[in-house]
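Protein 1 of 2
SEQ + STRUCT:
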Amino acid sequence: MRNKKKRPFAAAVALFPTWAAVLVLYCGTMAWTVYLSFTNSTLFPSTQMVGWKQYETLFSTARWIVSLQNLVIFGVLFVGGCLAIGFVLAAALDRKVRYESVFRTIFLYPYAMSFIVTGLIWQWLMNPTLGVQKTVRAMGWESFRFDWIVDRDMAIYAVVVAGIWQASGLVMVLMLAGMRTIDDGQWRAARVDGIPVWRTYVSIVLPQLGPSVASAATLLSMGVVKTYDLVVALTNGGPGGASEVPAKFIMDNLFQRHNLGLAAAGSTVLLITVVLVAVPLSYARHMQAKKMAGML
């Protein structure tokens, strides 16, 4: 009994530095950022409180509103596209295809790259004077266009395409792991009933991938909110701010315009967005796991 009482205390002592780091570095930094958003801080932090003035300035800035709109467009298409393509790739590999490990490595390889590298690759591909457009036009198709990075209406979709190309492999791995846990008896029953393979995946396999889908959606959603380097490398927020995102708006105000208070206000808005996204997804994942445990 004495040893059992000592173990929790020893564990608490061992974890104390970690908890202290979390409280000071994470929670403390977030609290400091929220505090600065209510001050008139510019190049250096200030203690002069200005109330909600920074937030009023923030939401009256057209560039910030455009960045929020782009965040919604990018988030919906990026998460939805990654989940759909990742599921299709996982289903294809789940059929025990030949050289599965090779294909799995190829599909996952883009995720090993940084967003900077991904952005540069797609910048070259969509460059109208260097990339795919020039190559296809040289073959005789003079009207072909693939210059999204210089098109105001298509720039944000160029970011979506590059993001999906990089992150779909991660979703594939998560869903493939979930598919490999499904009982083979369900497949045998589906074959006996004459259910097509695609219908089996959609109606039988997909509903059982709740934890995998929730985990993938959570990871992708967190990536959406902090999207910065991909945009900088691919379009730098252009043309004319058409592909601006909140993270770039914040970094520009912090390091270029030296408006610390406005940058802190934008960061606080993103923090609230993360909480609003993460909490429901975490709750859904917890309930799905609890439901699956109850079924077992």
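Protein 2 of 2
SEQ + STRUCT:
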Amino acid sequence: MLIPTYWAEARLQHREGRRTVTLRRFGWSEVGEAEAQAHADTRAREAMARVLSGETLPRRERRVAYNGAEGVPIREEIVDRHGDSAITRTGYGALCLNTPDVLFADIDFAEHSRPRHVLAAMALVFVAAAAALIGVFHVQVIASLIVAFFASLLLGVPLPGALRKVVVALRGGPEQVALRRVRRFVASHPDWRLRVYRTPAGLRLLALHRRFDPREDAVRTCFDALGVDPLYARMCLNQNCFRARVTPKPWRMGLQRLRAPYSAAWRPEHASLPARRAWIERYDREAQGYAACRYLETVGSGPSDPGAESVQALHDLLCQAERELPLA
């Protein structure tokens, strides 16, 4: 896990005849801005050499807080550190707990229909509509096909999602369906021990039985089996860490999100901006009345790792996970 304090950007340009190549690369450091700039210059030179040798590379890296280009660390304000873990402030203002080896997994209840299911439903609606129009109502073939096509768009696209909602409701609702999936997974992995939380959008799991490398096969197997949010899974792989939001999202408390400066990407000097400090003071006051998640149960009889327990205690304190507060 790497969450640097200092950042810089290098711009490098190469002209050869009528061809001009311009590259921008970020650099980072825990020491200071000069070291961050030197790192950026080195990365820009390396990228230019690869481009001039014929390799296709992005000309610039996106200004994003996390989950950007692979190899670019999390770029957020570091609010506090606890051992190997770091608490950072997201671009929109909430706090996140980042840990290199304590597994967190988010399961969102809102699932998007798979493309093959949508295409199958569209094909089914198209065939049924065309057959009915031609065979029953004796509409001309071309007109029937046109009407059937629009019917497949109007009915076929939302059909898989609607059917899934009905099935989930019959099985007890999204929370119970997700909890049964977690229990089945732990039953097949008896050495596991998972602490389960309810979030505003789904479930959060915290593994207590051992520490994990975010890129090991066991993590990928767990994420696939439990239906972990794909965006979160990709973030863990790219950033080589696990991450959990521990304070409310501002818009769920009726606040506007934190407005970043024009440069958008975090820089240490942003911490002293009066508007940012005023927003954080108000946010901290409002956040006392909300929980980021609520503890539900612990599943599995595996042992507890002391390091994981320490992160769990910090997580629960910051989230207010055992208080009866509205989730946000």
